[in-house]
Amino acid sequence: MTRVYNFSPGPAMLPEPVLRQAQAELLDWRGTGMSVMEMSHRSEAFRSIASSAEATLRELMAIPEHYRVLFLQGGATGQFAAVPLNLTGDGGRADYVDTGQWSKKAIAEGRRYLEVNVVASTAATGYSSVPPQSEWHLDPAAAYLHYTPNETIGGLEFHWVPEIGDTPLVADMSSSILSRPLDVGRFGVIYAGAQKNIGPAGLTVVIVRDDLIDNVNSRAPGVLDYKRQADADSMYNTPPAMAWYVAGLVFDWVKAQGGLASLAERNQRKAHILYSAIDSSDFYENPIDPECRSWMNVPFILAEKALETTFLEKAEEAGLVALKGHRSVGGMRASIYNAMPEEGVVALATFMKDFEERHG
Ligand SMILES: *Cc1c(COP(=O)(O)O)cnc(C)c1O
Predict the structure, then answer these.
(1) Class of the CATH domain delimited by 258-359
(2) Is the dihedral of CA 22, 28, 31, 34 positive or negative?
(3) What CATH architecture applies to the domain 16-256?
(4) Cys staple from 76: which of 193, 314, 339, 342, with CB 3.0 to 4.6 Å?
């Protein structure tokens, strides 16, 4: 068996010990004689899996008591609709920051349910920086402000949290949750599709302040209704049980790594290795303002576009896979979430140097 260094933006690498534990428990979860995939979600066994995953996540992120943690389906894309439906009742207004492809999608979906005010957009400059908050045009009547702390496609990250007074702050943290410590108390809603930093696809984690769950749109689908889901412990309907279980194993793994503070150090170090490799050469380039470069997704282009295919082929031969950039931006992108070991990043930086020596 050969495991590669997988730089996929998502679904992404999972920690090997997590996969091994899931494998060991696959046929018989702790003496139950069945797989988690085969268990009733109402069983005592699954209830213990579910509540222990939530407890560990709460501990890791220091989630305050007055927040609910929901384990849902529908991805971050489902939340693009769920957020307006839950936070603005039968209609209203909200502020959105536009920093790239994922904010654009959230805005487009939001517009189906409410009046969207785009407080700032860096589209005109190719989304290469985060707009400073001093330039935002906030709507005093906004029910919330939505932003995307890490733009997975562009490789752009907010290294600060907006300060917007009493307006609830809503964050799509699909590609940055668990990458560093966070003051959850500053947010109204945090949501994330699992397949980047949490676990397998099919699970969506929503962390919502409990005063925000009681104003749902009367036509909202029940499965997207925070209150119904919260009242049912995220089991209003059958939850993505297997993905929830594996997420729990990932949370245990994060804890075993020393928690978010130690992962943050490691993540910053990993990103630094790659950005240094890019900046120290004329052969590679990253277009993002150095102040706003993502720790999780590192896009780069080659000076000679014609070499892209060769680069990807040779990288793959060296066990460095899924480096192709998003179809909308081209070039390369290395996604280096929590589960990507530092050795994988070093291997990529070394490969890049060798490739440049051969072809530069
Ligand atoms: C991947 C991603 C999404 C889309 O997630 P789905 O689970 O496929 O809906 C949304 N926002 C961000 C920031 C992402 O990285």
Answers:
(1) alpha beta
(2) positive
(3) 3-Layer(aba) Sandwich (3.40)
(4) 193
